[in-house]
Amino acid sequence: MATSYGVYLENKGYTARATVIVDKQGSVQYSVMANGERNISELLAECQKVNG
User: Are 30 and 42 in contact (CB under 8 A)?
Assistant: First the structure.
């Protein structure tokens, strides 16, 4: 999954910390690499967009 979502760091051998929001059809609607804390308000807004 991490490779499919582009968050696996092959040269380092681990997965980057990321948030991926996938819709009911299985399509990625939002993806962001996390640098420290996540912005919860931003994630909520993105989830609301996906849910309509």
Answer: no
Would you give per-residue pLDDT tens digits along the chain (52 residues)?
A: 899 888 999 999 999 899 999 999 999 999 998 888 889 999 999 999 998 7
How do the domains of the chain map onto residue ranges? 8-45
Taking phi over 0 as left and psi of -120 to 50 as alpha, with beta for the rest, 15 belongs to: beta
Return the structure tokens found at 22. Answer: 């996938």
The reported pTM is 0.75
Q: Measuring CA to CA, how many Å separate 31 from each of 3, 38, 50?
A: 13, 12, 12
